Amino acid sequence: MSESTTLTLYSHPFSSYCQKVLTALWENDIAFTYRHLEDPGAGAECTALWPIGRFPVLVDGDRTIVESSIIIEYFDMHFPGPVQLIPVDREAALEVRLLDRFCDNYVMAAMQKPVFEMLKGDPGRKEAAMAEAAAALDTAYAWLDTRLAGRRWAAGADFTMADCAAAPSLFYADWVHPIGANWPRLREYRVQLLARPSFARAVEEGRRYRSYFPLGAPDRD
Ligand SMILES: N[C@@H](CCC(=O)N[C@@H](CS)C(=O)NCC(=O)O)C(=O)O
């Protein structure tokens, strides 16, 4: 991207947590250098920066910032743009952080469980892992559907970090366990997220990696 940027993001287009951060970057058109994790040496560089071995990882000059929510908070502090991803009002910010945590901990994590089982090469665990994911996701879907009542976006009227988290988590969760017709608000919300240009771009850039999805990607978004 821009040659003058101080920001480098270690990222992969198909990774849900990377898509969360990319959505935030593209919401405010923040310039950054994309260090694709399939590029030679990028994986080792990324692990050297963050030995936990998870990504995305952001580098800003001599500073390394990790964890998708912290990275988005960092953008909000240091690269503010027209879309305020963390509200100034602290009560409103609390709701944004709650929805962000909810999507990561109870949607993304539940969705990732059977994915990791398959990646570990334990297909014998698939059925049980899928059943566990379905039960956990149904609980999460029900809560979210209720919480969305009267809201345009996850935490209220405006697009925030909560939507950056919700977009990839619901995108992939629906592949693992489709959001049932009994949660119309949540289904409609997922459609709305897919239409948001920042997230639509993330989905588009990840499209050619769909064969990586260990449970088999459906023939739809
Ligand atoms: N809590 C981390 C989670 C990041 C995460 O789990 N990223 C996945 C990719 S979507 C990953 O690094 N997977 C590699 C692995 O688990 O070895 C965050 O919010 O950034």
TrEMBL record:
Specify one Pfam family: GST_C_2
Q: Which GO terms describe its cellular component?
A: cytoplasm
Domain (GST N-terminal) spans 5-83
Q: Which domain of life is it from?
A: Bacteria
Q: Which SUPFAM superfamilies match?
A: GST C-terminal domain-like, Thioredoxin-like
Q: List each copy of the GST C-terminal domain by range.
A: 88-213
Q: Which residues cross the membrane?
A: none
What protein is this chain from? Glutathione S-transferase
